[in-house]
Specification:
By secondary structure, the chain is mainly alpha-helical. The chain has 10 helices and no strands.
């Protein structure tokens, strides 16, 4: 079924269908995976006709990419803002723990929403097992921009830290924060009442202290 000219020129309708398709695709790709999700299912879930997928996104493959691009934009903006905010509030004199804590809380904030947390984890797990994104998408749209913001901030908070060690330190921090997302999901789904409650704030504080100690171990002795 073709999309009418009226629909094509109606900005509000276009925005509505576009966003509904993204929302529906995110849910279905996380639940069923890319291969098991059909264009018909996407259109049905979004309340539009099948032709809308091609009209707005150029196909299922590009819709999948745009689902991820939307998520990456939100996460990238929040993480970079957390770095810039703490450095601005302290006139560039933030301590290392303050910088890491601000970044870590921005990183895990989506995990506070349990349904979104599960959806993101499933989406990520499916992409790792069955990748469909461009190979350099995460590097170009997440890792690179965040690293560019974090590097000068770490150099200010740790003047004796060799610049060559910063990428590995940031990757280590991110790896820990990603892992607690999966751990939180496991604890949230645990059926046994004997399991202790997983405290996300306590986990973040542990990662902040652990990472700060690791970063300082690389500093030049005179700067410590």
């Amino acid at each position: 079924m073709a999309i009418s000219d009226d629909n094509a020129i109606d900005g509000d309708f276009k925005k509505g269908v576009h966003d509904r398709l993204l929302d529906a695709a995110e849910e279905l790709f996380a639940e069923k995976g890319f291969g098991a999700t059909s264009v018909r299912q996407l259109a049905c879930a979004a309340g539009c006709n099948i032709a809308s997928v091609n009209y707005y996104f150029g196909g299922k493959d590009k819709l999948y990419i745009e689902v991820w691009r939307r998520e990456l934009q939100v996460m990238r903006t929040a993480r970079i803002a957390s770095i810039e905010r703490v450095m601005s509030e302290t006139d560039g004199d933030a301590d290392l723990e303050g910088l890491l804590r601000s970044y870590a809380h921005a990183f895990v904030e989506p995990l506070a929403d349990e349904s979104r947390c599960r959806r993101l984890i499933r989406l990520m797990a499916r992409e790792i097992i069955d990748p469909h994104l461009p190979a350099d998408m995460f590097l170009n749209e997440m890792v690179g921009p965040v690293m560019a913001a974090m590097e000068p901030a770490l150099m200010k908070t740790c003047p004796g830290l060799p610049a060559s060690k910063i990428p590995l330190q940031v990757i280590s921090l991110v790896g820990q924060l990603m892992h607690i997302g999966r751990v939180k999901a496991l604890f949230d789904q645990a059926a046994s009442p004997g399991w202790p409650r997983f405290d996300l704030n306590e986990a973040v504080e542990h990662i902040v202290k652990f990472s700060a100690a690791g970063i300082r171990s690389y500093m030049e002795p005179a700067a410590q």
